[in-house]
Design brief:
This protein is α+β, with helices and mostly antiparallel strands. The chain has 2 helices and 6 strands.
Length: 143
């Protein structure tokens, strides 16, 4: 599946840590479960009905819609030094987190339908509002 729309935000925050063994559900050194679960709850408050968070090989996914398009937010950590040591993961505010909004067509469905980019733009705006409203979260430049 190609994802023609991906728009992201990068943050630092002491609010989110890495759960012990969290990367056994993803790939070694891939984190973001606490961020994804927190963001999921905030999206419910905004009127979304997201599924429980899903582990992916790159981090964690908050699936917001599956109807005609897949609309979701990815949450994961950024490797600032080019590698992550699973045995010694970074802590709290030392982690740069990446939240990215994606809309894509489900495999084998909707080939001739347009992507609902406006839904993705709206979701991105809500994610940005959620992140900037929390005083414990600092937006940072893309590493």
């Amino acid at each position: 599946m190609a994802a023609p729309y991906i728009k992201g935000l990068w943050i630092r925050s002491p609010r989110f840590t890495i759960d012990p063994g969290e990367d056994t559900a993803t790939n070694p050194g891939r984190y973001g479960k606490q961020l994804a679960e927190w963001l999921r709850e905030k999206l419910v408050e905004k009127g979304y009905d997201p599924e429980p968070v899903i582990a992916e090989d790159w981090g964690w996914c908050v699936m917001c819609a599956r109807e005609t398009n897949l609309l979701w937010v990815g949450c994961g950590n950024v490797d600032e030094n080019g590698s992550v040591e699973a045995t010694n993961p970074p802590r709290g505010a030392d982690i740069v987190w990446h939240c990215f909004v994606t809309v894509e067509r489900p495999l084998f469905r909707g080939w001739f339908k347009k992507l609902d980019i406006w839904l993705a733009d709206r979701l991105y705006t809500h994610v940005q509002e959620i992140l900037t409203a929390d005083p414990l979260i600092q937006l940072v430049e893309e590493p």
